[in-house]
Predict the 3D structure of the following.
Amino acid sequence: MGHIHLVINHAPVMGLFFSIALAGYAFYVKDNHVKRAALWAYVFVGISAIFAYLTGEPAEEMVEHKPGVLKAMIETHETAAMAAGALLCIIAALSAFELWNQKKGKPLNPKLMMGIVILSVIATLPIARTAYLGGLIGHAEIRPFSQGAGQEIPGIEAGEESGEEQGENGGMPEPANH
């Protein structure tokens, strides 16, 4: 189940950017069909954010004991994911509400549609931060600083390491011929 997180976690990020572009295009061409498609895309983004969050715990269990993985990194990513995911779910709920109103025969509410787009543009920052923090967990090569003594990673609160104890070799076993 943890591997699924690594696959699905890209959907809310890329889906959000796609939805914003689609909504922008819909406003440009003034087409309500395209606006409805953008609303459906926002609903998809919210649903994918829920699945990404729900698969996060099994992914954590897969990596929490690996050398070089800090518990603080995982917790910071999880906190950011909760906030960004909540924002995406609000956008999805507003989009679903507007789609429901459309189904009842009401005209498209341009103020609500614009509010959804503005909120989604604002959401790009927390979702991008969440993605960045998640990438730091599994990709030591993108970490701005080493995890050596006394150095911290910006945006990550200091905490205990989840994996093996950090020694001179950064948690790696001693070479056989020393």
